């Protein structure tokens, strides 16, 4: 199927499919002589997996990491999707019930306790999502998060100041080349800082840089220090990783 046919079938935009191809998430198996993308049945099955994960609010970088993992199993993933959707449906049913009660309470028909007003809200991590990360997730990022979580408040504040300082330094350099000596010196500081939180191989470091662009939450957070900083850091991290491989 051509890209427009897939887009119409699934109900997503052609631009979205082009983006998935550009970031290596879903690459069509073939092209026509004119250069148009051709999607195979295997491509469509993978697209279904991607959209299940998107429905469950997984970022594209995490989806790419999981579905391209050598240990990824499609049937296991489908079972996981099913369980997560049941969990999500249960939470939504509880929240709808709370909304209905709140409307009746506002009309004076019933009285709600303080506890009842917040039934259905659950901001804890979904255990099925945790299972997905454990099966197919990024071990380096998970270890880094755990390391930061074990720090004291003062240690976290000191780490945050150091990180912000490096962000600011790189923001001043972003108008130049990511392979300049100044940019590479600053990105080396970034690499060494990350390795204080958890072991990052050069390949993982390069992958993290790509995540800065693929995941809009990273992009928005980093670009607060200067427009285009996330892209500059991605490029500088890729240069550093490629240059320092033995």
From TrEMBL:
<dbReference type="InterPro" id="IPR036244">
    <property type="entry name" value="TipA-like_antibiotic-bd"/>
</dbReference>
<dbReference type="Pfam" id="PF07739">
    <property type="entry name" value="TipAS"/>
</dbReference>
<keyword id="KW-0804">Transcription</keyword>
<protein>
    <submittedName>
        <fullName>DNA-binding transcriptional regulator, MerR family</fullName>
    </submittedName>
</protein>
<dbReference type="InterPro" id="IPR009061">
    <property type="entry name" value="DNA-bd_dom_put_sf"/>
</dbReference>
<dbReference type="GO" id="GO:0003700">
    <property type="term" value="F:DNA-binding transcription factor activity"/>
</dbReference>
<keyword id="KW-0805">Transcription regulation</keyword>
<dbReference type="InterPro" id="IPR000551">
    <property type="entry name" value="MerR-type_HTH_dom"/>
</dbReference>
<dbReference type="Pfam" id="PF13411">
    <property type="entry name" value="MerR_1"/>
</dbReference>
<dbReference type="GO" id="GO:0003677">
    <property type="term" value="F:DNA binding"/>
</dbReference>
<feature type="domain" description="HTH merR-type">
    <location>
        <begin position="1"/>
        <end position="70"/>
    </location>
</feature>
<keyword id="KW-0010">Activator</keyword>
<dbReference type="InterPro" id="IPR047057">
    <property type="entry name" value="MerR_fam"/>
</dbReference>
<dbReference type="InterPro" id="IPR012925">
    <property type="entry name" value="TipAS_dom"/>
</dbReference>
<keyword id="KW-0238">DNA-binding</keyword>
